[in-house]
């Protein structure tokens, strides 16, 4: 089981060259054998959590119109200046997980208190189920 703290508050925040802190959206991802990224959990009170839209198991499809499958799984694309907007698209499978899914978009404001967004590594004996 992956253990993380429910909040990333108190972490040191890297800054850009103009000394503006970087922000994230408070998502921890898991990656499957095809290199697809899925929401593992949302950091409590982070921008993604407060949106009320994103759920564990949703597949990240694009970041600011840059498709993950075409450009690779670079989570640094989620980061940006604190207070800036980022638009994410996700795919949510139907409840029965049979050939049905729904794509949706959500616009979030990056927050320095939720930087960086991370990729969790499951233990060897834990399968990533999506």
UniProtKB/TrEMBL annotation:
Annotated InterPro entries: PDZ, PDZ_sf
Highest rank taxon of the organism: Eukaryota
Domain called PDZ: residue spans: 23-94
Annotated SMART domains: PDZ
UniProt-recorded name of the protein: PDZ domain-containing protein
Region of interest called Disordered, as start-end residue ranges on this chain: 1-23
